[in-house]
Amino acid sequence: AATAARLHYQLGYLYQQMNLYDQAQEHSLHAHALAVQCQDNATQIAALDQLSVVASAQSDFSAAQSYVAEAFGLMEADDPRRGFGCSVLGYIALQQGELEEAVRYYSDSITFHMAAGEHSLAAQSHQGLAFVYTCAGQHRQALVHYQHVLDKLPQQQYPLDVAWTQVEMGWLYRLLGDY
């Protein structure tokens, strides 16, 4: 059952990457149920994280928050895996216009990801934080976080993220008249 749970999690992830959210949800729910059955804590958490992404992508923020809360209930307070859920909560707060809360969640996410040595995930959280600061009109602070993205992501592995970050930075420099 543990192998089947991990397989369904991977299928859910693939469907999520293809924006096929119904299939992603179906496989992630199945992965979660199997992981609960065989007491596979790591796969339970991974499936709940995936379900939170799928729910937030569909603007079902209540469900996403519930999945994050359930995942957090399976972890210690200092577990670095909390970084993923904090990032999802940051995204939700941003979408709901709660910028201070978004800053807090994304900042917590960065702390957790860095503690785990997950530089690419920390960079994604820096992207989210930069976008929050852009929305708040704090362009210099946004540039600081976009620079962190460039510092943490190897260009050859993440060419689209690096290019997008450079475009965003160029736009901000233009807004500031600093070019």
Beta-strand portion reads under 5%
Choose one word for the global shape. Answer: elongated
Class based on secondary structure composition and strand pairing? mainly alpha
Rg to the nearest angstrom?
17 Å
Low-confidence stretches: none
Helicity level: over 70%
Mean pLDDT: 96
Order of helices and strands: HHHHHHHHH
The tally of beta strands, per DSSP, is: 0
Number of helices: 9
The protein's oligomeric status is: single chain
Biggest sheet statistics: none
Cα(first) to Cα(last) distance is: 57 Å
Describe the structure.
The mean pLDDT is 96. The protein is mostly helical and 179 residues long. It is elongated, with a radius of gyration of 17 Å. The longest helix is centred in the C-terminal third of the chain and has 18 residues, at 159-176. Helices cover 80% and strands 0% of the residues. The protein has helices at residues 2-17, 21-37, 41-57, 61-73, 82-95, 99-115, 119-135, 139-152, 159-176. It starts with a helix and ends with a helix. The protein has nine helices and no strands.
List the topology elements.
Layout: H1 2-17, H2 21-37, H3 41-57, H4 61-73, H5 82-95, H6 99-115, H7 119-135, H8 139-152, H9 159-176
Helix pairs in contact: 1-2, 1-3, 2-3, 3-4, 3-5, 4-5, 5-6, 5-7, 6-7, 7-8, 8-9
Task: Describe the structure concisely.
The chain is mostly helical and about 180 residues long. Helices cover about 80% and strands about 0% of the residues.
